[in-house]
Amino acid sequence: MSKELFNNLSLLSSFIVIVPLLLSIYKIKVLNKIQVNLVYLLIVILIVEFISNILWYKQINNLPVYHFYTVIEFLLIINVYRFELSKVFSKLFFIIISIGFVIFAIINTLFFQNLTTFNSNVTTLLGLIVIFFALSYFYALLKEVKYRTLESNPMFWINSGFLIYFSSNLILFYMNNTLFKGVTEASLILWGLHAIVNIVLTIFYTIALWVNPKKQNT
Fold this sequence. Notes:
Largest sheet: none
Number of domains: 1
Number of strands: 0
Shape: globular
Radius of gyration: 18 Å
Strand content: under 5%
Helix content: over 70%
């Protein structure tokens, strides 16, 4: 993969989030609770991508931004699942998971992967937890006696996007940290694939905001 193609993919991956955000403005009056929580996540993503890209083009290490972002992202995602899986897991369970993750992130930054290093340990744990909740959500859907129209359910699209994105990232981040050091042709391909997966996730976000959920889901 050429560096020019990689840069174009990265730029598109970073700012395609503007599309679902514009859609959320158009549909602001009809968004349900899950969709509003998604909008909060998208706003944080846009801010982080804006800051990290500025630092990148100024040749300043932008990895410290992601140390903080990973924790915020996790808490926002947990908030989404806390609402949807309230019948499966107790409120205390989500509190323990949240506190445990934050403590792990702090310890990892202080003793293992400092602010100038990619926090792959925390990112990997984030991916594993989200995959667990994504599978739990699908399991909860299968156990429902009442039929639900999935294509009009925002959480179905959000959850599917999460499962695809974080499952892919577990492999991508592991390979990048163990096999490649610095900017190489292989690492460009790897992070190019990450950008593509991120674009796919954003498409799922857009669909989740586009659909009109049933009133009982609001």
